[in-house]
Specification:
375 residues; alpha/beta; Rossmann fold; 2 domains; 7-stranded mixed sheet; 12 helices; 18% strand; globular; binds nicotinamide-adenine-dinucleotide
Length: 375
Amino acid sequence: MRIAVLRETAAGERRVAASPETAKKFAQLGADIAVEAGAGLAASIDDAAYRDAGASVGDRAAVLADADIVLGVQGPDPDTLAGLKPGAWIVAGLDPFGQRARVDRYAALGAEAMAMEWMPRITRAQSMDILSSQSNLAGYKAVLDAAAEYGRAFPMMMTAAGTISAARVFVMGVGVAGLQAIATARRLGAQVSATDVRSATKEQILSLGAKPIFVEAVQGIEGEGSGGYATEMSDAYKAAQAELVSSHIAKQDIVITTALIPGRAAPRLVSDAQVASMRPGSVIVDLAVDQGGNVEGAVAGETVERHGVKIVGHRNVASRLAADASALFARNLYNFLSAHWDKDAGRPALPDGDEIGDAIRLTRGGQVVHARLLS
Ligand code: NAD
């Protein structure tokens, strides 16, 4: 049973889907691990580290030959997979809606494509959840990116030359990334406030020492849908939220936005007029920029200035911490495969009816099989 680990080819992608630690653990399960030469370099892992962990290292064709499972961070380019064994698994973040044509190509290759970002949010799958592990790092890095662009200090400082006041940081969207952003900004000494549509986050915000900013005026609204995710809000809620944000945002130095709604474009939370209300030198980091952005005027892959306010729109923020992001991503993949390991067969198995398999398997037997892609 051979597991192939590919070098990522997408622009700006620095992560790798296996670490020496997980390569070793796969070897201990009896798998033969083949790593494409240079796969880990951008994440500070050289080929020798994989060899020391018991993997072989070769070019892409050699690594893919006879592979039963192909691991990637992003979905591999189907053009580079010719000759893949029918029935081989492709396990990666596959962006099934954004890369729909690619999914069809995986089906045509006879592969079973597993979209790790569709892992169900159940207790058993927490250790396999790439969205959580990567969002956590992105939330941390967003605050550092904001601090780097901000021409002032974060903590309050009382010096002989006078006092500097603490930066005011507002976090919009308090999921995994937002919680880490709050914690990081607090560690840097900022005065932090945060908002979300899910009322359950209020307690979490308070427990991190930040101030919750919530819409109270619209009754009977609960922004939590299935699996702990947010739902699209009513127009009345959106209007109340916009008013609340307008008065609050004008007093903020830093805004970090992280709001996402599964299967939809990111909700627009900050308008151009609200950007204009902030004082010059303020910084906004839009972590949702890859999904369309929470902030009007944010540009994916760029830092732009509007009304004297910098709007930071880095893509793929987790990849900017490639070593740690890879280590956690690799463990997510290992935890998924090892939890389904069939010792007799010497490989993982995902029987029909398995909650995880049904949630993440996109293709099988030459067909696209996932309901979300067929409707
Ligand atoms: P996400 O990345 O989908 O969205 C980020 C945040 O934006 C969410 O908190 C969401 O409520 C918020 N949001 C959406 N629309 C908004 C709006 N208009 N205004 C303000 N905020 C808005 O979320 P996530 O980080 O994936 O986490 C979602 C939930 O899932 C959390 O409660 C998290 O703890 C939970 N979770 C559970 C598991 C598990 O059980 N396996 C794993 C990971 C996360």
